[in-house]
Write a structure and sequence with these properties.
The protein is of the alpha+beta class and about 550 residues long. It has 8 helices and 27 strands. The protein has helices at about 20-40, 45-65, 75-85, 115-135, 150-160, 165-170, 170-195, 530-535, and strands at about 15, 20, 70, 70-75, 210, 215, 230-235, 240-245, 250-260, 265-275, 280-285, 290-295, 300-305, 320, 325-335, 335-345, 350-360, 365-385, 390-395, 400-405, 410-430, 435-440, 440-455, 455-470, 470-480, 485-490, 495-500. The strands form 7 sheets. Strands 17, 18, 19, 21, 22, 25, 26 and 27 form an 8-stranded mixed β-sheet that branches. Strands 7, 8, 11, 14, 15, 16 and 20 form a 7-stranded antiparallel β-sheet that branches. Strand 3 and strand 4 (about 70-75) form a beta hairpin. Helix 1 (about 20-40) runs antiparallel to helix 2 (about 45-65) and helix 4 runs antiparallel to helix 7. It is elongated. About 10% of the residues are buried.
Amino acid sequence: MREHEVPTHVQAEDKALLWFTFPQIVAVVATCAVAYGVYRYFPFGPSGLKLGIAIFMGITGIAMTVGKVGGRGLPLVAADLLKFYVGARRYAGSPAELVVSEPPPQPESKPDPLRLLAKQAASGVGKVVKGARRRCRRPFRPHSWFGKGRRRKDRVSRRLRPQESKQDTSPRLARGRLWGRFLAVAALGLLAAALPPGSALADNPYGDAWRLGEAYFEPPDPVPGRRIYVERLAVSGDTAVVTLRAAHDLDLKVRVFGGRSGETLKMGVNAGLTTGESRSFNLPLDGTPSFTFSWRDALGRSGAASVKSHQIPYPLPSAHGELCDLELTSLEWMPGRIAGVISSECITETRHEEDLPVYGGHFSQSVPALLDASVTGIAGTAGVMWGSHRATATFVPDGETSFALPVSNRRADHGLEIAADLAATLNVPRPPALETTHHPARTDVYTRRVRCSCGQSTRVKTVRVYVHHPEHVRAEENQRGPVTRTRAEVISFQPALGLGADAPYQALYVPPPKLPPPKAEQTRVGGSNWWSWLWRRD
């Protein structure tokens, strides 16, 4: 069996049959099958029409499979043509977007005409020397024309070349040709010296302008500075109100992202703002929210700013305590101030635990008891802290407590901490208490006069009764009035809220446009006479 080694480094397709590859064979077979199916099962028309359609489809499919234009398959060429004729034919953007990242190389300055003439003369002499060497002649060396060495070498060369004709070996003819070339070069040098000096190159009227195609333009210098500022961020429930202020004329696009991963687009708004204009947007909040504000200003530049999830206080927290349940219903940031509202729902009845004395007097005893109590009043303060700034507000039970925290007007990100220090007054009714009294042992003597009748006579007799009382303790029930108790509690919002503040607004300063470069003017160097130029050279 014959062995063939196929090199693996050659980027060529394997030919399975003649010049067809495996994919081409499959495509041709499929095309022929479809053409036969059309001829065999076409629903209407004469057999000639069916045969023509089948042949057309077969030839077209085989041509599309095998044919190539410039080494590329016909499907790729057809796709490129379709994209060219159907796609966009005009660029709709600004010229600034087409600027390349690096400036093109500076054009080389044209050399002086005298240098060009000298270069051409030197190239002519070089060609003469090369031609003489190719024809076995002596090169152009004027310093070796005189002396015996030249005549001796010429005789030796004539003896070694007997096959050359007299015309080629004649020293007069060779010397005449060399003198002719020398005179030609000398004339060319005199002509170059007699010509006036060249003109200086024209100044580039475009300076550092770049070239795009055949049009010259100077790209505008970038104007540093911010274009958009967040002037207000208010969160209430599942809605955020964001107020933006533009520092320049721009087209604004607002995008709201949320969801579990924070990458789901929830809302999009497009608007146009002028310099100094403010506009508020109601944006929904869901999952892990974030806002993106992309812009394109009137200078042709674009950019974006974002408010991330850790800078948005969502969801607004709530806290549960024994006295009150607190909920932050709204939170608002403005330049120099943070404001919010805390809604509270407090209890009216509770249970108070204390050591209750049940016996008093001679014998006393206290037991832990859980007593029903009524809340007569709740007072306290709500403290707010953001960074190094602190503020307090009077707490309003069963209502809304509004607070305002003055902050510095600068860009910062801090955690907002809110804590309520409450004190409740309780009215605790107490049950009756038993008052115990100790009685020691004693004997009481009671005297009684007793009259007794014995027959006809009546007799009075004194009788003494002795009553002995052992030692004992007696208890009496005494009613007790209610007592007033105070209960303190501190309720804080956990986890801490994240809130970001933007920098103060500052209008964008656009420098005045640059003056157009002056037109190029041809400036002649030196005088108009060649001898004056020679004099300056010395």
